[in-house]
Design a protein that fits this description.
Helices cover 32% and strands 17% of the residues. By secondary structure, the chain is of the alpha/beta class. It has one domain: Aconitase, domain 4 (Alpha-Beta Barrel). The longest helix has 11 residues. The radius of gyration is 18 Å and the shape is globular.
Length: 192
């Protein structure tokens, strides 16, 4: 996992509410344990027609969406089942942050563990981003702010340990492994 301190990118806007994990990555694609290639399946039922042809009117199929690393979505993003594949698909497609006014708890935790910053903004700041698809914004994980296109910033909450892991580019297991010497010393001290 790559460390994230600041992320500057244009945005892709999906203004729909209640985007669930089955819409993010349909269940028929959950047969793999590898993350590679899942980006092509991201939003598959919206992105492709029944023959597998890309729908020209879907935002991810438009040229202006290429290279964007920040997804701005409607309220209650990532609801539904706890499938980690949803985050894997977003990450494999190139997204490093998701911005909404509400992100489902399990999705948020999966995002943090997989190098995607879940950003929950207040309704006013979020509305400004929804109204400006393709806007260039800066997610500053150090400061816990998003620099909006109009020059203002909006703060967002993030759990301190999750923030630390994202800044360091570690998941929980790699953090624990990095503490091996301290754990061993503690065990020796207590006679373990």
């Amino acid at each position: 996992m790559q460390p994230i301190s600041t992320l500057t990118s244009r945005t892709v806007v999906l203004p729909f509410t209640n985007i669930d994990t089955d819409q993010i990555i349909p269940a028929r694609f959950l047969t793999t344990t590898t993350r590679l290639g899942l980006g092509e399946k991201l939003f598959a039922d919206w992105r492709y027609d029944a023959a597998g042809t890309p729908r020209a009117d879907f935002v991810l199929n438009r040229p202006e969406s290429r290279g964007c690393e920040i997804l701005v979505a409607g309220r209650n993003f990532g609801c539904g089942s706890s499938r980690e594949h949803a985050v894997w698909a977003l990450r494999d497609h190139g997204f490093r942050a998701v911005i909404s006014t509400e992100i489902a708890d399990i999705f948020r935790r999966n995002a943090q563990k997989n190098g995607v910053v879940p950003v929950v903004l207040d309704a006013a700041a979020h509305a400004r981003l929804l109204a400006q698809p393709g806007a260039r914004v800066v997610v500053d994980l150090e400061a816990k702010t998003v620099a909006l296109p109009d020059g203002t910033t909006a703060a967002f909450p993030i759990e301190p340990f999750a923030r630390y892991c994202l800044l360091e580019g570690k998941d929980e297991l790699s953090f624990l492994a990095s503490q091996d010497a301290a754990i061993t010393a503690y065990e020796r001290r207590i006679g373990g």
